Amino acid sequence: MPVNMISKLLEKAVLPALDVAPPVKIGGPRRTSVLRNPNMEKLQKGYLFPEISIKREEHLKKYPDAKVISLGIGDTTEPIPSIVTSAMAEYALGLSTPEGYQGYGPEQGHKNLRKAIADKVYPDMGIKETEVFISDGAQCDIARLQTLFGPNVTIAVQDPTFPGYVDNGVIMGQTGKVDDGGKYAGIEYMRCAPENAFFPDLSRVRRTDVIFFCSPNNPTGHAASRDQLRQLVDFARRNGSIIVFDSAYSSYVSSSSSSPRSIYEIPGAREVAIEVSSFSKFAGFTGVRLGWAVVPDELLYSDGFPVARDFDRVVCTCFNGASSIAQAGGLACLSTEEGRAAVRRVVGVYKENARVLVDTFSSLGKEVHGGGDAPYVWVRFPGRRSWDVFAEILEKTHVITVPGSGFGPGGEGFIRVSAFNSRDRVLEACERLKSFLA
Ligand code: PLP
Q1: Cα angle 33, 35, 39; round to 5
Q2: Total tally of structural domains belonging to the chain
Q3: What separation in Å is there between the alpha carbon of 290 and the centre of ligand 1?
Q4: Domain identity same for 117 and 132
Q5: How far is CA 30 from CA 23, 209, 383, in A?
């Protein structure tokens, strides 16, 4: 079957699933007697990106001919290098042969890929292949880690933050209700703003059991310095906390940057940190789905039990292993210099887009952050509400951004601009932004 026909079939199959579930009519369909998980009710209405999609649809109804450019959702747009897709295709075709067929793989992932990650992503950091658990993406690992922690732990997040840490904590029952300011009772919000170099004053942060920390950061684009991560690790060690370090954007840290790519570059991190990471933004696998979590042997609960043993159990019970086709692709990204160079080139395209965006906003006199070691640019609009800025930019330039307040109260007054689009579209968006903001 031709490739474009396969894509069309998948599109058909996938699109309805992305639609928001139809509202239940009162007096309509018969109800069961099953109680809803009460924590689901606590979740704030509307997830950020569906909300933005609705605004986009409304905009297109108003301006049917508008050429909308999305610098919103952090989804990759460049094709996956053929050295990677050929490896997946070859593996997939092999499944049709008696010699190439394989069923379930190891739940923790294929040995070669675990080893490639340990060797190539964590060189000289002492990470063993058995400490690497292959997954279907960082988002899924964040949810599975919450299963591991259960409802009784306390959590801290950066503010603003990637929403997945908070929402999974809410679903697990680790929080109370949300207040009018958008904060959940029970969560410690660590404000990260330009004024504190995007790093909290830890002497004023309440101790929690788990600390979610993302660097390079979504949404601010800030890559934490070595000194900041040292402080974080020391803080966790002093308090007996576990850091969940999200390094989904580590491949955007320039080789000349002094920011660490992994928490395990910091001495002492093995005893206090789990790292989740992903092939999504590193190799364009947002749709293919592949990621990993590192759980070091030294990480222990208060009773001395190894966290990795429980995580292994969760992976076996709740997951059953990542797609072997995706794993073949992951291996192709890492195992040869050719594969590594090919994915580096794609990351380079987005990094250059980010540079163009930073230059554009800077030339307009805006306060701009991020974009150097991350695919996100964080722009301040003092005294303005994020959603108003989002709406005005959309109305006047047909460019979609993301309101910073969608990432928590600390994002109010900012917008996030994503570098994930083709160079031509980014350049076109910059021209429009220049004429609007000049
Ligand atoms: N972590 C962060 C900080 C992200 O921004 C994203 C996606 O945008 C994810 C995790 C999810 O990654 P994955 O596609 O591997 O589930």
Answers
A1: 165
A2: 2
A3: 11
A4: yes
A5: 13, 42, 49
Nearest residue by C-alpha to atom 3 in ligand 1 = 218
Is the distance from CB of 354 to CB of 249 less than 8 angstroms?
no
* Whether residue 357 is found in the same domain as residue 324: no
User: What CATH number corresponds to the domain at position 315?
Assistant: 3.40.640.10
CB 326 within 8 A of CB 92: no
- Relative to beta strand 402-403, strand 414-418 is antiparallel
Interval 13-40: pLDDT, tens: 544 444 445 555 567 899 999 999 999 9
pLDDT value, residue 49: 85
Integer Rg of the chain from CA: 22
Number of C-alpha atoms within 13 angstroms, CB side, residue 185?
A: 7
CA distances from 117 to 87, 296, 328, 333 (A): 17, 14, 13, 10
> Is 158 close to ligand 1, i.e. is its CB under 6 Å away?
no
* Distance, CA of 293 to CA of 105 (rounded, Å): 17
What atom of ligand 1 comes closest to residue 291's alpha carbon?
15
Instruction: Provide the phi-psi class of 288: left if phi over 0, else alpha when psi is between -120 and 50, else beta.
Output: alpha
Residue with token string 């292959």 = 134
Q: Do 304 and 409 belong together in one domain?
A: no
In tens, the pLDDT along 211-245 reads: 999 999 999 999 999 999 999 999 999 999 999 99
Atom 12 of ligand 1: nearest residue by CA position? 138
145 Cα to the center of ligand 1, angstroms = 14
Structure tokens at 329: 């692709």
Based on the fold, state whether residues 364 and 316 are members of the same structural domain.
no
Q: What residue numbers bound the domain in which 413 lies? A: 48-79+339-437
Instruction: Assess whether 276 and 137 both reside in one domain.
Output: yes
pTM exceeds 0.90: yes
Where is the domain boundary, 282, 317, 336?
336
> Is 17 among the domain residues?
no
162 ligand 1 Cβ < 6 A: yes
Q: Is 406 exposed, middle or buried (0-12, 13-18, 19+ CB in 10 A)?
A: buried
